[in-house]
C-alpha cells in the first residue's frame, strides 16, 4: 500500500508492493530511468569487455591470427593485450547503454538475444572499418579482410552473450514479467 499524507491507497499498478518496487526503475513505456543506470552499465561493460578480451586472447594463439597481425604490422602487445581490452570496453559500453536505455526498441524478447543483436550491429560497423583498413595492405587485402572478419565474429558473439547473460542476472525475472505485462 502506498501512502499519501497518511491515507493508504492501493498500488496503482494493481500488483503487490514488492513487484512495484522491482519496477521502480522503469517508466510507463518500459524504458529505464536515468538514476541507477551507471552502476548497471559499468557491470555489463566490464563483463562484456572481459569476454571480448578473453576471446581475443584465445584466438591469438591460432597461426591465422599471427598472419593477420603480420599483414597489418600489429605487435602482439598492441593487437592482443591492450587494443582489444580497450576496444572491448568501448564496444561493451555502447551495447550496454543501448540495452539498458532502450530495451523495448530492440526487436527481440529475450535479453540474451537483444544483446547479441546489438553486438551484431557493432560487428557490422567493425567489418566496414576493417575493410577500409585492409585496402592499405596491398595485394592480399581481401585475404586480410576475410581473416579479420572471421576472427571478429566469435569475439563480438562472446561480448553479446556475456552482456545478455549479465543483463538477465541483473534484472532477473522482472524483464520477462514486464515484457509479458506490456503486451496486454
Outline the structure in words:
There is one protein chain. Residues 11-25 have low confidence and may be disordered. This protein has one domain (37-183). Strands 1-2 form a two-stranded antiparallel sheet. 24% of the residues are buried. It has helices spanning 17-22, 37-60, 63-71, 76-101, 111-134, 141-171, 174-183; strands at 2-4, 7-9. The chain starts with a strand and ends with a helix. With 184 residues, it is mainly α. The longest helix is centred in the C-terminal third of the chain and has 31 residues, at 141-171. Helix 2 (37-60) runs antiparallel to helix 4, helix 4 crosses helix 5 and helix 4 (76-101) packs across helix 6 (141-171). The protein has 7 helices and 2 strands; from the N terminus they run ββααααααα. 71% of the residues lie in helices and 3% in strands.
Task: Please describe the topology of this protein.
Elements (H helix, E strand, L loop, with lengths): L1 E3 L2 E3 L7 H6 L14 H24 L2 H9 L4 H26 L9 H24 L6 H31 L2 H10 L1
Antiparallel strand pairs: 1-2
Helix pairs in contact: 2-4, 2-6, 3-6, 4-5, 4-6, 5-6
Amino acid at each position: 500500500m502506498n501512502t499519501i499524507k497518511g491515507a493508504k491507497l492501493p498500488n496503482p499498478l494493481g500488483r503487490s508492493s514488492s513487484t512495484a518496487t522491482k519496477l521502480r526503475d522503469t517508466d510507463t513505456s518500459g524504458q529505464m530511468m536515468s538514476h541507477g543506470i551507471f552502476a548497471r552499465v559499468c557491470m555489463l561493460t566490464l563483463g562484456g569487455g572481459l569476454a571480448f578480451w578473453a576471446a581475443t586472447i584465445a584466438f591469438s594463439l591460432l597461426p591465422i591470427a599471427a598472419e593477420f597481425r603480420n599483414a597489418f604490422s600489429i605487435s602482439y602487445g598492441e593487437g592482443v593485450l591492450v587494443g582489444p581490452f580497450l576496444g572491448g570496453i568501448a564496444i561493451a559500453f555502447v551495447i550496454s547503454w543501448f540495452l539498458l536505455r532502450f530495451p523495448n526498441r530492440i526487436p527481440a524478447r529475450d535479453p540474451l538475444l537483444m544483446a547479441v543483436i546489438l553486438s551484431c550491429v557493432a560487428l557490422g560497423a567493425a567489418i566496414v572499418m576493417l575493410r577500409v583498413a585492409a585496402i592499405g595492405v596491398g595485394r592480399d587485402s581481401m585475404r586480410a579482410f576475410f581473416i579479420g572478419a572471421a576472427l571478429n565474429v566469435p569475439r563480438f558473439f562472446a561480448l553479446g552473450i556475456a552482456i545478455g547473460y549479465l543483463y538477465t542476472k541483473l534484472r532477473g525475472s522482472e524483464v520477462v514479467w514486464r515484457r509479458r505485462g506490456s503486451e496486454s
